[in-house]
Amino acid sequence: MMDTIIGFLQGFWEIMGEMSPYLLLGFLIAGILSVFFTEKTVEKYIGRRDTASVFKASLFGVPLPLCSCGVIPVGMSLRRHGAGRGAATAFLISTPQTGVDSILVTFSLLGPLFAIVRPIAALVTGAAGGMLVNGFVGKEKTTAATANTQPGCTGGCCGRDEGTETSESRFERALRYGFLTLPGDIGKYLIVGLVLAAVVSALIPADYLSSYLGRGLVPMFAMMLIGIPMYVCSTASVPVAAALMAAGVSPGAALVFLMTGPATNIATITTIWSVLGKRTALIYLGTIAVGAMLSGLLLDALAVNVAQHLNTTNILMLPAWVGNLSAVLLIGVIATALMKRKGQAHMPVTEAMAESVSENIAVYLEIKGMKCSHCVNQITRSLNELSKVSGVDIDLQTGQSTITGRNLDREELIGIVTSLGYGIEE
To answer: Which of 139, 246, 303, 362 has the fewest Cβ atoms surrounding its Cβ within 10 A?
Structure first.
């Protein structure tokens, strides 16, 4: 028993030491991308409903550090701002599979081949899914959920005008997103992934699963059945995949898990089904499943001995002190971000506060399905696009939300929230 515990702790710290330097670098790059590579930029380039927009949507999604829950409101917002079903689907497929942080972690734990194949597979599957939707889903009708609802929208409601921001403010925003917001979003999932990886390493001997699963389609299908319904972010899935490979799972099967786990879960599938339609949801799911299997077969053909050399490759090894120091820093960053998130209690606007402004009213909603700051930000932004809305306050932990403004229509506000894929507690 004691040997198992020691093996678990050693495995946990070894994985932390290997991935921490690259993950910290990924957090920094992700923060920079969040400032210069905004959702408004994405909307600008994929607003048309054509093949080029589908490819651009898939391409834009590859480096963005959005998980499968955070990508839903962004994808639905793209729809509301004019993007076609195909472009929105491409974005929803490619984005959660990778991100600049997960690519660097993949490089550190699985090697350069995985780090190259993974984003290419995300790009190709995203583009393929979007094109299939454009080709097989009927002509779209403009509805309240998909129409652009931002008449009179200015920089004041959708965010600061980028031309007026100073380099210092951008730098501060990049650091805040990279080392507070993003770790707060994925921190608990990352810890769970590390624990699972350490448990697998401690309990399952090296190459033990290879005798049961072998190679080819059977282990890939098994990984797909595990990955599709579960929720795991693209970064947290990497240490789990590395541990599975060390236990004997083929590289191709590990890639199937890396693609299906982050890209799909029950919540994402049901949201796409209800908002984009049954046919789009089936194409979305089928494209990911088929694309993952084909990518896995291709990877196995390219790298027969990746699993065997996973623990013996020294080309990526940094000095031990760098990994240990980075692991300590990463734990500090995640702990700080999670404590800050837990301590953030939004004070709802009271009726008295709302009545203090002439003719202002407050509408209270309890929003279901929010999991990260991207969810809150996208709902806030979409509600603020209504010119009659003067303020939005959302508590991520409880879902309690207060919208203030003049002549607000509760049903209209609910319609905007549900069009983004969220529910309302009646």
So the answer is: 139
Total domain count, the chain: 2
Q: Which of 85, 133, 81 is nearest to 276 (CA)?
A: 85
8-state DSSP, 403: E
Do residue 386 and residue 255 come from a single domain?
no
Residues 141 and 272 in one domain: yes
- Same domain (yes/no): 53, 105: yes
Q: Which of 164, 258, 240, 170 is nearest to 200 (CA)?
A: 240
Q: What are phi and psi of 363, to 5 degrees?
A: -115, 130
The position carrying tokens 């495995």 is 11
Strands (E), 274-326: none
Report the candidate in 403, 408, 388, 393 with the shortest Cα–Cα distance to residue 152. 388
pTM, rounded to two decimals:
0.74
**CA–CA gap between residue 170 and residue 36 (Å, rounded):** 9
329 and 356 inside one domain: no
What Rg value do the Cα atoms of the chain yield, rounded? 22
Residues 6+ apart with CB under 8 A from 276: 79, 85, 88, 89, 284
- Residues 293 and 398 placed together within one structural domain of the fold: no
N-term to C-term CA, the chain: 50
386 and 283 within one domain = no
Three-state secondary-structure class, residue 304: coil
pLDDT tens for each residue of 116-127: 999 999 999 999
Concatenating the DSSP letter of every residue in 335-402 gives HHHHHHHHH----PPPHHHHHTSTTEEEEEEEEE---SHHHHHHHHHHHHTSTTEEEEEE-TTT-EEE
302, 311 Cβ separation under 8 angstroms: no
Answer yes or no: is 97 within a domain.
Answer: yes
**Residues of the domain holding 290:** 2-334
Angle at which helix 251-263 crosses helix 237-246, to 10 degrees, equals 160
Residue 115's identity, in one-letter code, is A
Specify the residue for token string 């979007």.
Answer: 130
pLDDT at 21 over 70: yes
Cβ-contact 110, 75 below 8 angstroms: no
Confidence band of 343 (pLDDT split at 50, 70, 90): low
Q: Give the three-class secondary structure for 248.
A: coil
